[in-house]
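Worked example 3 (structure in, sequence out).
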């Protein structure tokens, strides 16, 4: 049986009510579900990889950087000279702030997995946006390094998901399946195409990571009860898009999602 990795996307204070600057309604509901998935008496993941949105001040996606209004689109130009419509966000997950930290109780649940864990930090270049965990820097979870926060000019303009740090790591470790949980599943954005086979308009870090996982040829499953978005309809449409591309969504019909996940991992 191939190895399975659990990716835990962006469960950070700034994405959580009541005080997060970009809080996902009911976002805290994912925490006990994910903690359950980290219960070693029930689950034995081969690898666990949490991600952090990790922005410098003045990031290209911030409304404050672009003299714009939060949640509105504005044409911006990234470090590679590519102009695109960027949804502008409130300042969030700024390096060195509490908002960038992974939620405290969830961090405690990571402790038993430290020997099987890496951490991804993404969105750290000031002139490049990055939603997918496959677009970030991979570090040891016990003492993660600070990623570069320059303009990102050293980053290739196009890199396939299988060639990213996370994609290479998972493949080198013999991972054959990827399970994805976390936040958020339906923030809308548009960014330059990453692969000719993958749509350019995914919604949210959970779905973007899922698209990257599929693009790297990993069989991919999302756990619906362990994800949340702003709008249920938009989230459902995003899940339908992923299913059309070959992903599995467990728990979407209110059934025994744990059994679905176990069965999918088994086969």
């Amino acid at each position: 049986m191939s190895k399975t990795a659990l990716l835990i996307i962006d469960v950070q204070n700034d994405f959580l009510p009541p005080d997060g600057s970009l809080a996902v309604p009911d976002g805290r509901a994912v925490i006990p579900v994910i903690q359950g998935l980290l219960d070693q008496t029930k689950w034995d993941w081969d690898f666990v990889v949490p991600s952090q949105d990790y922005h410098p001040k003045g990031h290209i996606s911030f409304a404050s950087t672009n003299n714009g209004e939060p949640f509105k689109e504005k044409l911006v130009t990234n470090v590679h000279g590519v102009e695109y419509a960027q949804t502008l966000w409130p300042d969030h997950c700024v390096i060195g702030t509490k908002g960038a930290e992974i939620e405290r109780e969830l961090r405690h649940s990571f402790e038993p997995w430290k020997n099987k864990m890496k951490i991804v930090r993404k969105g750290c270049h000031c002139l490049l946006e990055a939603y997918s965990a496959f677009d970030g820097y991979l570090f040891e979870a016990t003492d993660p390094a600070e990623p570069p926060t320059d303009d990102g000019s050293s980053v290739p303009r196009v890199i396939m998901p299988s060639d990213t740090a996370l994609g290479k790591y998972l493949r080198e470790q013999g991972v054959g399946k990827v399970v994805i949980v976390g936040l958020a599943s339906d923030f809308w954005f548009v960014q330059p195409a990453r692969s000719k086979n993958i749509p350019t308009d995914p919604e949210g870090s959970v779905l973007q990571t899922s698209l990257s996982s599929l693009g790297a040829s990993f069989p991919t499953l999302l756990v619906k009860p362990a994800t949340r978005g702003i709008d249920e309809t938009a989230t459902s449409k995003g899940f339908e898009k992923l299913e059309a591309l070959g992903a599995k969504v467990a728990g979407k019909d209110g059934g025994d999602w744990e059994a679905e996940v176990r069965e999918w991992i088994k086969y």
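Notes: The beta strands are 3-9, 47-53, 73-77, 83-87, 118-122, 137-140, 175-183, 220-228, 248-250. The longest helix spans residues 232-244.
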